[in-house]
Please model this.
Amino acid sequence: MAAIAFDNSYARLPERFYTRRAPTAVAQPGSIRVNHALATLLGIDPLWLESAEGTAVLAGNTLAAGSDPIATVYAGHQFGSYNPQLGDGRAILLGEVIGTDGIRYDIQLKGSGPTPYSRGGDGRAPLAAVLREYIVSEAMYALGLPTTRALAAVSTGEQVVRESFLPGAVLTRVARSHIRIGTFQFFAARQDVEALKLLVGHVLARHYPDAPGRGDNPALALLQQMIHAQAALIAQWQLLGFIHGVMNTDNMLLSGETIDYGPCAFMDEYQPDKVFSSIDHAGRYAYHNQPGIAHWNLAALAQALLPALHEDQEQAVALAQAAVDTFPERFSQAHRAGLARKLGLAEFLVTDQALADELFQLMAQHRLDFTLTFRRLADLAAPTEAGPGTTVEELFEIPDPLLPWLARWRERLSAEQTPATERQALMYTANPAFIPRNHLVEEALQAATQSGDFAPFNALVDTLAKPFAYDRALARYATPPRPEQAVTQTFCGT
Ligand code: AMP
Ligand code: MG
Model:
């Protein structure tokens, strides 16, 4: 029996932080995919995870030694309305391990049966939702974003009842922690200041041990670190055309990782007001609203932290406000730095904002593919010696109306000293060729759910593991959808 070296710090917090609950066994566990590299990082033998014994653990049918399974409690603002009681309704934290990188990771089953927080839900997950999260979260990781990850997907041999009967599955999700803004809101709403302070200490020790000011005012130090982390994260989303789709406060992690791959999607054509989620009628979580929503969510965190920030309420509010007010500029800084990398600039001058804005305007006006536009700029940043097979030229060319802009961009580049090949190499690391395009994700999910064919899923996951390395043999994964292939809506899929 291979071991998982659990060390469960969250389960050592007081009992009001969670409910002890074992996963509910499934009829017939079947291994779909195990993430070998991630298993190795966690010090777990990937071959064992693929064995019948390992699969039984990943399905929730057996508990590994040292596991102390809990469902955690939290609250949250969903689409702007406060819900005082959420919690892991279809997820169970098996425990934590220290990775070979020295970082502590949660190992959580998602779709593992009901908990006290299921609110009438079945605690299960359909296969399509599990595979979507596997594909997109691992793609985000390969793109260099902080994100929860997928250790494994297993089938359950059971059906879940939604609008129709769907095959069920369990995802093993890995995160630096699953502590959310909503976790703080839960205790704040109960005026449980002791729990708030405990949670502040736990998060600081776990994620921000070097936070400046930690000794003087821990809650303020934590708030500031979270603001930095979210500014950096949301900037990266914007720079890749990623739309999260459900930025509720219970879906924002203190670790700064992206979580909840329900109705998310990457844009094909650039449209700043783009919304995919079928339930987001007002466009609250549209692409261009994401920085503003993050700011709003951080204000909700600050509000929850007030009693821990200062005994005097007025002073607490002043500290909270001053911290939250730094977000827009923090975000802009991170966004400008990212834009500079995407455009091949060593330095982002004040006048470069207009250059970037104009590009985005043209992209929107001509509905250009977000990913390929930037990838093509990287191609054009230096003469390519390797030939057409290594560029996206055959898939996308900068259209004529952009040529005057292109000339201005080249002129701007020539004002910097960076050698062209060096600039191009850097641009290739900021402008991926492969993103999880919705039509390819859909295609993979359909093959798996309708015919039990996991080959498209596996091929897609494999391709997205190297998003910056273009190769003509993989052209179909970089090609935008034809009009009839375009996916216009995504669903929470719970
Ligand atoms: P989410 O949409 O993933 O952010 O989930 C919001 C809340 O609904 C969380 O408390 C989930 O645990 C809960 N939930 C979502 N789907 C289910 C389900 N199938 N069974 C039980 N609880 C669920
Ligand atoms: Mg969620």
User: Anything to note?
Assistant: Residues 86-90, 117-118, 121-124, 250-251, 260, 262, 492, 494 surround adenosine monophosphate (ligand 1) (CB under 6 Å). The CA atoms of residues 277 and 414 lie 42 Å apart. The mean pLDDT is 97. Residues 10-175 form one domain.
